[in-house]
Amino acid sequence: MGVLEGLEPKRVFKYFEEISSIPRGTGNCGSISEYLVRFAREKGYEYVQEKCGNVIIYVPATQGYEDSETVILQGHMDMVCEKAPSSKHDFKTEPLDINIIDDHIFARGTSLGADDGIALALALAEVDDPSAAHPPLELVFTVDEEIGMIGAKALNTSLLKGRKFINLDLEREGEVLTSSAGSLIGRMSVPIKYHRKSGENYRIVISGFTGGHSGKEISKYRANANIIMGRLLHFLGTRVKYDIISITGGLTHTGIPREADCDVLVAKADSDSFEGLIQEFEKTIKNEYRANESNISIYCNDMGELEENVLFHKTQERLIFLLNTVPDGVQKMCQEKLSRELVETSLNIGIMRTDEYRFYLEASIRSCVKTEKYALSDKLRYLTETIGGIYEEDYDFPAWEYKDRSELTERCKKVYTELFGREPKITGVHAGLECGIFYSRLPGVDMVSIGPDIHDIHTPSEKLSISSTLRTWNFLSSVLRSMRK
Ligand SMILES: [Zn+2]
Known about the structure:
The chain contains eleven helices and 21 strands. With 485 residues, it is of the alpha+beta class.
């Protein structure tokens, strides 16, 4: 007897339980890939198993749907392996210990992997259901989504005929996702030169900022410690003389920087006014961010007299100029009538450093419109090169662009409304999805992403809603059933 036996939809939960018994952490997709191949063989479907483990299963149309357009159902096989401190679970070898509480399925002590095991279960159940009615299907299962979408990037899209694409990796029921962000990393390097000088050494510290993820939280207009440091240095520079020794801020390009510090030399006679200006600046910033930052702290520590290498004045001016003119944060909101306030284009100046030879800034640029992403990147290049620096682009990742007229979105809207008596929310995300890769490689593709409610994904508290899975199943099979030509 399976733990999930008796739950509706039966086939979905039968497959979900089987999938949950197969270790399939990211980087360990061999067994689940074999399982999918076995499924295809047993049912007599053609399939391709790619070298990396991706599996494509070709399912013929049911009777009467032979002339309908081919539909791709897609999800990723791998799951994030997180466990509670007390758990002894071995993700490499052991099946998940799945259980039910009220309306939810969870795994005892570990993440559940409904992200994205439920996609596999929904797709397999659909083609295994004798009462199902659907166009020709291509089931596309990718490996290792959770560490850089390795499977999707490696997938040979010439193996796919379908141009109607349903991704099943959304953890919110009642939404139909219609776009995701593209991104790239912009690296700005400005050459710097030092000379020897002595004076009173101060360490300026900016800390206590909330930070957050540069995709998810950029719309919250939190303060960026690097940008605030730049503003402080400019504020100081117009009032008192000082020389920069070094500057650092931020840890990753995807994190909104919470801290920054800068070592400077100040003439002993200017010490008091220097300290006073920093206190004044702290008050200004606290006031500006009073609504979204509660722990801002901006201060300086007197480290005593010091002889040290400091930046030449011209170099210092370039650094401060760049920090004060480089764009940061939300650049544009989506103008489409999507149900969620969605950022269209943003960037985050995530890392700031000086080393022996250069001043370095690293930006994470995101946009669901390709041309806006490159325009913003060009702006950074223009700024950097104008002051004698070098600009480089890295990790260019494609967007899934919103389409005003999407037959598939309209169909989903109609079917959902008929089934549940209310319209689904048509939304997008300001983050990268596998969909972006497929969108860029399947010309003319019409794409949506849907899925049941899953809470606390990527944590040991991850849980899948049973009733939401049933509704999502009805929704998916009804959409496919509606595609008879
Ligand atoms: Zn996922």
